[in-house]
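In the current project phase, we have settled on a layout for protein records. A sample record is reproduced below.
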Amino acid sequence: MSFSKWIGASIGWSVGGPIGAIVGLALGSIVDAMTNGNGGPLLGQSEPKRTRQGRYSSRPTKAPKQTQSGDFEVSLLILASIVIKADGNQDQRELDFVRQQFTNMYGKDRANNAFRLFKSISKQNISTRQVCMQIRSMMDHASRLQLLHFLFGIAKADGHVTEDEVRQIYTISGYLSISSRDFESIKAMFYNSTDSAYKILEITKDATVDEIKAAYRKMAKKYHPDRVAHLGEEHQKGAEEKFRRVQEAYEKLQKEKRF
């Protein structure tokens, strides 16, 4: 798939608002780099549309019923660029993680296009609040949880999650209206502490067997891959990891409590 076809595929609300402005600026940079010696676009490429003031339009579009795969993909690219810069250092392992995750989800060609846009987005100064406000208003809760899970994966790619990265992801989760309990649940999936299983299931250590069973049913439903089926098979696969960690947490407590 060509870059121009990829960026126009399956994108709905993300063409407007602050996200649309960020993508437009990134596309402008990419198109400029791809132009020929005469200053015109290469064959098959076209300039992103600009307003009269020369700025990319950020006019919001009508919200679709559900977030499309392309909207999720673009949101992921922007938030990933924010997290990677949180500790003041773009570690190559984190960049490799982003590329590998996109390759696993989308295949090599689509991943290459996404990573090209990602590198251009990473050079911008982005308002975390404005981006998250747009995502919160347009994206369902299950998809926002999936975004958070991916961001922790990026932060952990270099072997550990720094305090700066945790603070940045926590800030993002707050703007996305993700509760502290859900934040701690997903965060615990990336730590091997003694109470990780309890945090993943959002219960305390003094929970009864019945409470553990009830928590498992609740979290299994919340993190079930079918909740993000509308994003496409590629994102369902990513959601399977969260679902698997819930199952592992429950099995660990089954052994610990002997029930």
User: Anything to note?
Assistant: Residues 13 and 63 are 6 Å apart (CA to CA). The radius of gyration is 20 Å.
